[in-house]
Design brief:
Radius of gyration: 29 Å
Strand order of the largest sheet: 2-3-4-5-7-6
CATH architecture of the domain at 115-316: Orthogonal Bundle
């Protein structure tokens, strides 16, 4: 059990030779002991000297005590908690200053643990416990939102669980330090300027991650969706070790299906979480009362949480924006947010040795190559990173020239190894969400999700909606798929399926090995469109892109990389 009133992670019990221990503040509060400390401050157990009531005393570290913005947030936390006045929000009873001028806050003393402890120690949480906790958080947030206060930093660490009466999981919401107040005219009174992000990245709504100024209570509702997914699966819905890539996923990728991880839970709950995690705030629940009502249908479910053993880690899911161009090179499907198995890589791919760089230029070039390999060709072209006055034509690889000695005799087509009984999880939806979906000509549900038999040949997926361009593309069933088809307004059909040529297998007379030869002997021209999308109109599966005409210096290369990354993150939701 941990006694605390701070939201910062408590690192270690502090040594009791702390000079603050034993102090009496404002002739009322005696500091008894330090409970622990975090990056911004420390929390102490205290006692009201007259009524002998235990309290928690929170203060800032000395290096932050004179920082105006941090002190303002400290005051904001106290003001938010006291102005809401709800049983599920920690109570702040007083504020004051030490003799050196640094501020402190007096809060109710809590004995318990934060919810993240339960998730870290026990993994996926039972649904009934999760709903019981979220009901109380919804009540606390509804009271805050009614006062025009948006929390902006909801996470399991800020949901503190104590024992009250017969309830072992009574909730206290902590840390309104970066909360945002809205005045009666609807304007926001925040601590940041447009373009600045505050909060914990995993739980930030897309509009918050982009630093937008006009966020509202639906940013908190998005955070509840992240918390619900995490509590039920033990994973974040979006995860990456790189902050820019994490923001990119939050802003562009659909959430992974809940039932990929918890097939024991109903589909309706999965759809509810998808609604909470919608990119567009207008598609989420309008308020916490609506969310709490929608969760009631699941309260009777008795479950023993067990995450599917074959469920992929969300940290291994790649952004579909970066895998788009790789589809035409053979292995990574453009629509997939999930990495294919490592064995799917071409064994014949050459390894390029890289010498230790003497400057930053080779490192930057290597980074560009990686981005290009992952599909950055189209993104780089879109952002103008490699623009030049006159684009050069691509350099196609030379066609092999057959000689008399190399002449081979055709043999019968050889079947590939079957994929056996393997099944892959597939989820498909559309933007806009009311489009019609067709799989091999048969209409299917939207969203569609199922475990389907793995196969090498792609299937045909089509999305239609009146007033929008019909889109047709391949659906690869060689690995897990999480596909969102985004339609554009207009008419006609956009067929994005990979063009294939007839292939025959020939066996070498001398070596006995097999080689695949294209049925076409003339190379086809690569169009500007195929260059940007990463696909070709010829039988060649390994197109070579031309070098940029101008030589890039270290400075221009760094600028191009910055432009590319800015282009990735500058996304309008």
């Amino acid at each position: 059990m941990v006694a605390t009133a701070m939201s910062e992670e408590l690192l270690q019990p502090a040594a009791q030779d702390d000079p603050k221990v034993g102090m009496v503040l404002q002739d009322r509060y005696r500091i008894v002991r330090k409970i622990g400390e975090g990056g911004m401050g420390a929390v102490y157990e205290g006692e009201h000297v007259l009524i002998k009531r235990r309290v928690a005393i929170k203060c800032l570290h000395s290096q932050f005590a004179t920082n105006p913005e941090i002190v303002a947030r400290f005051h904001r936390e106290a003001l938010a908690a006291t102005s809401i006045g709800h049983q599920n929000i920690i109570e702040v009873t007083d504020m004051g200053r030490f003799d050196d001028g640094s501020v402190f806050m007096v809060l109710e003393f809590l004995l318990g643990r934060d919810w993240s402890d339960d998730i870290d120690n026990h993994g996926a949480q039972p649904l009934q416990k999760t709903l019981h906790i979220l009901d109380q958080v919804c009540d606390a947030l509804a009271a805050a939102h009614a006062k025009g206060i948006i929390h902006r930093d909801l996470k399991p660490e800020n949901i503190f669980l104590i024992e009250r009466g017969s309830d072992p999981d009574f909730v206290k919401v902590l840390d309104f330090g970066i909360s945002k107040f809205k005045d009666s005219a609807g304007g926001g009174k925040g601590m940041t300027q447009t373009g600045t992000t505050l909060g914990t990245p995993y739980y930030m709504a897309p509009e918050q991650a982009q630093g937008k100024k006009d966020i509202d209570n639906r940013a908190d509702i998005y955070s509840l969706g992240v918390i619900l997914f995490q509590a039920l699966t033990g994973q974040y819905p979006f995860d990456d070790e790189s902050y820019p890539m994490l923001v990119l996923k939050i802003c562009t990728e659909p959430p992974p299906p809940l039932r990929m991880y918890r097939p024991d839970l109903p589909e309706e709950l999965e759809l509810l979480i998808a609604k909470l995690l919608a990119k567009n705030p207008n598609e989420r629940f309008a308020d916490c009362a609506s969310l709490k009502a929608a969760l009631q249908q699941f309260r009777a479910i008795q479950d023993t949480p067990e995450v599917a053993a074959d469920a992929p880690s969300t940290a291994n899911m790649q952004s579909s924006l970066l895998t788009g161009a790789a589809q035409s090179q053979g292995d990574v499907p453009a629509q997939s947010g999930i990495r294919p198995p490592a064995t799917a890589a071409h064994e014949s791919a050459p390894e390029v040795p890289i010498a230790p760089p003497s400057s930053k230029v080779p490192l930057i070039i290597a980074a560009v190559v990686v981005l290009l390999a992952l599909g950055g060709v189209g993104i780089a072209a879109a952002t103008g990173a490699f623009s030049s006055p006159e684009p050069q034509a691509p350099i196609l690889p030379p066609m092999p020239v057959a000689t008399g000695e190399q002449e081979t005799a055709p043999v019968a087509e050889e079947e590939e190894e079957p994929l056996g009984e393997e099944r892959v999880w597939v989820r498909i939806d559309t933007e806009p969400s009311d489009a019609e979906l067709f799989l091999d000509g048969d209409r299917i549900a939207n969203p569609f999700q199922a475990r389907m038999p793995a196969q090498r040949e792609p299937r045909r997926i089509e999305a239609r909606k009146e007033g929008y361009v019909t889109q047709i593309q391949d659906l690869s069933l060689r690995w897990e798929q999480n596909l969102t088809i985004r339609l554009e307004e207009g008419s006609g059909t956009d067929d994005r399926r990979e063009q294939r040529t007839t292939r025959r297998r020939r066996r070498s007379r001398s070596g006995g090995g097999t080689a695949a030869m294209s049925g076409s002997t003339e190379p086809a021209a690569m169009t500007e469109s195929s260059m940007s999308s990463g696909t070709t109109t010829s039988g060649s599966s390994e197109p070579t892109m031309a070098e940029p005409a101008a030589t890039m210096t270290e400075a221009t290369m760094e600028s191009s990389m910055s432009t590319m990354m800015n282009g990735l993150l500058d996304i309008n939701i």
